[in-house]
Amino acid sequence: MFRPGRHFLQIPGPTNVPDRVLRAMDAPVIDHRSAEFAALGRAVLDGMRTIFQTRSHVIIYPSSGTGACEAALSNALSPGDRVVIMETGWFSHVAWRQVAERLGLEVDYVPGTWRLGASPDDLEARLAPDRQHDIKAVVVVHNETSTGVVSRLADLRAVMNRLRHPALLIVDTVSSLASIDYRHDEWEIDVAVTGSQKGLMVPPGLGFNAVSEKALKASLAKQTRSTSNYWDWHEMIRANASGYFPYTPATNLLYGLREALAMLQEEGLPAIFRRHLRHGEATRAAVRRGGSRFSAKSHASTRTC
Known about the structure:
The chain is an alpha/beta fold. It has helices at residues 19-25, 35-52, 65-76, 90-102, 120-127, 153-163, 213-221, 233-240, 251-267, 269-289; strands spanning 57-62, 82-86, 106-110, 135-141, 168-172, 191-195, 206-211. Strand 2, helix 4 and strand 3 (106-110) form a beta-alpha-beta unit. The longest helix has 21 residues, at 269-289.
């Protein structure tokens, strides 16, 4: 059935793309080995560090968020490594558990209710007995797209620090980055994963990893190196140093990302977070007024996420 007018998405993601971003993408493709492209590459890489609130490396892939998940796991871990994945909803299963198992990782899937974020107590119960440090990573979805449940990352990192457990903390920020507060360096996140199609306001097609020095060292020290050339962090970082990519990038999506980053900078992250919180509270108030109840009990609030 034909419906005139512009289609308006009312789903968790992909989100509606602002006209400014669409117009920025409507440009000729340039030579991705030119000086003009290098300036574009440096601009988006530097801009993404600001959004992740990190001084660490940010890597941009022509991929979905699931591709960025695979990049995180395949670089940081080796087949047979044990990884704890906290269940918070559909994407903790399909985007993390499924990928991890197919990569040959030993998954300890911690059951959750889908109504609350990852439990610090449950994480401590898994990590405390691991005196040999067989667990190499902990995976948490910051904001679970399927439920709206938010995990308190600072509390989870506090558990790991108190136990002095060296596991990497890997976080899915696909539906949280640039929407609710996320502090990569302050919360000592080792690898963050996101996609372009939600808070970044860009069409689907870009995947991102923000990578700590600890995670980079872990990837170099792996006994079994990944055979993937496409996802390799180190190949990307070497090329990114001068603004380039080791293979053909998604040039016009990067145009859109540069414009989206300008919009985010103009509004400012604190104002953006307040706007999302305000809209979320308004939506929940309207639903309550209609007599409905919520499945999620742990959502974004003014409390640090």
